[in-house]
Amino acid sequence: MDDAQLLRYSRHLLLPQWDAEIQQRLTDARVLLVGAGGLGCAVAPYLVAAGVGTVHIVDDDEVDLSNLQRQILYGTTSLGQPKVAAARQRLHDLNPGVQVIPHRVRLDAGWLTGRHFDLVLDGSDNFATRYTVNAFCVRQGIGLISGAALGWQGQLAVFDASKSGEACYACLYHFGQGDEEDSCTRSGVIGPLVGVVGSMMALEAIKWLGQLERSVVGALIVYDALHSVFRQIRLRQDPECPVCAGRNLA
Ligand SMILES: [Zn+2]
Hints:
Blueprint: H1 3-8, H2 10-13, H3 20-28, E1 30-34, H4 38-50, E2 54-58, H5 83-94, E3 99-103, H6 109-112, E4 119-122, H7 127-140, E5 143-150, E6 153-160, H8 169-172, H9 184-187, H10 191-210, E7 219-224, E8 229-234
Parallel strand pairs: 1-2, 1-4, 2-3, 4-5
Antiparallel strand pairs: 5-6, 6-7, 7-8
Helix pairs in contact: 4-5, 4-10
Zinc ion (ZN) binds at residues 167-168, 170-171, 237-238, 241, 243-244.
């Protein structure tokens, strides 16, 4: 690390649990962020500011006036721009030392084929994408940090497909159980909630990549923002899970 990097990351380096080796792990990391909406807008700046070396962001949407109530990477001048382009511009300004790679596509299994990441963060807004992303992570045997926010309720789960016997997203939600229409467009979402959940996703990602504490793995955190209550629910692998059951890990 040069002097500027030492200064940039000094408030992390001052932490007793942190050192140059951990910072290097972040530098070497390659992550995929699915979705540049409310959750992505909170996740991405914290990953980039922390020095996560390569951040791929996938989103096919453009910035709309109704996004600005919570999608804080964008401003009035971003209206009509592809979200990934506007996000990249802001993130590059935040930390030019990391690579932010925008992909203006709707993520599907074909796009994921042949790609490799150390960790995936899913802040997408529909179950089809979540299933595709989960299946990819299970196949690759990599971590998945999944966030959701709707109305006043937020959820966060960390899945570790590198270990056998761990639950995956499909163990938690069976296919077809998710309501495709139950989106923010229809139900609304309280703005700061996406910031809370997105920040937690980034925090768990930084701990994962730095190989620090992984206390949330195998648990679902549910946040009731209206009553300010957090609950933690243990997750178990579903022996009938169509995605992860019966996997053989070396
Ligand atoms: Zn499963």
